[in-house]
Here is the input.
Amino acid sequence: MGKITKALKKATEDRLGRIEKITKIKERDQLIVKKIGESEIDPNIVSYFDPKALISEQYKILRTNILSMNKGRPPRTLVITSSIHSEGKTVTSLNLAFSLAQAVHKPRVLLVDADMRKGKVSRYLGVDNKEGLSEVLSGQRKASETLFHIADQPNLTFMDSGSVPENPSELLSSNEMKEFITEMESNYDHILIDTPPIISVTDSGIVGAMVDGVIMVIQAGRTQRGIVKRAEELLFQAHSKVLGHVLTNIEYHLPEYIYRYL
Here is the structure.
């Protein structure tokens, strides 16, 4: 027990030493993403505020991996989901959307918030949209009436989740949803659809079966392997194709013991 106690004490001292060293490094401030002017967009959307940041580069790698799939014929319609809540799914969707839109050829990108229970896309963008996908699928609005942009990214379009309906799963499984995706495919080069966690509800599996594939977001150090496996089983049962995984909350090493999180 004495050896274990000494080992734990040494590990703690080392950790405290690294933290103290971080506080002495002025360069750490350059790694913190700050808001631009009066923008209401959340600072977690790093790809918008600083496309050249180290974290933004990770989203560009994700973009490259997606665009290199299927021998140059990448999936155009993607569902973004996770196993459980709070794994970084919506932040990943937004950062990936901005990264796609920033490509050299300026593709037309659409991000749809299909979480009609707890949608957060508009909140992260700092806008107050009352109408969106639920109104489109219920026939109250045309898609063109609910689409919106942010001022300095004209080739990136958003659609909010809209008001909370009584039957979100039924709306997503309707012919109206299939027709909506088909209509959007004729107008956009890439379509990202942010959906609720698959363990909680069936929504992402329903929509996943209508698109080219699903990207699963997994929070490292939190989500257990068994939960991820169960999530993949649910997507498979819904005839959704999992194309890959995105790990969030990864701590990676930078020079001078500076650490940063995705």
In short: The beta strands are 77-82, 109-113, 147-148, 156-159, 190-194, 213-219, 242-248, 251-254, 258-261. The CA atoms of residues 69 and 75 lie 7 Å apart. The domain at 33-261 is CATH 3.40.50.300 (Rossmann fold).
